[in-house]
Specification:
It is built from 5 helices and 7 strands. It is α+β, with helices and mostly antiparallel strands.
Length: about 180
């Protein structure tokens, strides 16, 4: 994790091979909003096997200069996570991301990650808008979302949390990263 000259790439998550790595990430205190603090490695593997089998949800491992550095989930918000909680539009894509914990944080790294995640999602011409629903208490991610062009719409109640429903169009993302 060297900084601005870093190269970000993505690969499909392997639920079996990557479960131990992810376990360390999702159970770390900084990942409290991921809601897997008490998960065992086999719980993490099982959760990601379910995602791998789901045609409307997938997980990618983000690499920084070839090393695992973050997790990205992409989902169809009309069918998963937000089904029935908002009015979906054609081209909507839901997203979650989690940066690996580190003892030596690099200033600007998480913003670089979310920028890479958004660029990856918008690389698909069918993606018109990215939808997120972070916990209302997760002020750090709200600031990151705003930095890449997300606009909060409203709070919604999900079974596991109160969430801030936010949207980012391709145009808003492009303006935010060009600034």
């Amino acid at each position: 994790m060297t900084g601005p000259a870093s190269t970000f790439t993505f690969r499909p998550l392997d639920p079996l091979e990557d479960a131990e790595l992810l376990h360390g990430w999702v159970t770390h205190p900084k990942a409290a909003f991921w809601m897997m603090q008490d998960a065992r490695p086999e719980d993490v593997g099982r959760a990601y096997m379910e995602i791998a089998a789901d045609p409307y949800h997938d997980a990618l491992l983000g690499l920084c200069d070839g090393e695992p550095a973050f997790l990205m989930e992409r989902y169809d918000p009309a069918r998963r996570e937000l089904a029935g909680l908002y009015e979906p539009e054609p081209g909507d894509v839901g997203m979650h991301f989690l940066v690996a914990p580190t003892d030596t944080p690099v200033h600007g790294f998480t913003r670089a990650v979310i920028t890479a995640v958004m660029a990856h999602l918008f690389a698909d011409p069918a993606t018109r808008r990215v939808v997120v629903e972070p916990d209302v208490r997760n002020t750090a991610v709200h600031a990151l979302n705003e930095a890449v062009g997300f606009v909060p719409e409203r709070e919604i109640r999900k079974p596991e949390k109160r969430a801030l429903l936010s949207f980012c169009t391709r145009e808003r993302f492009e303006r935010a990263v060009a600034a």
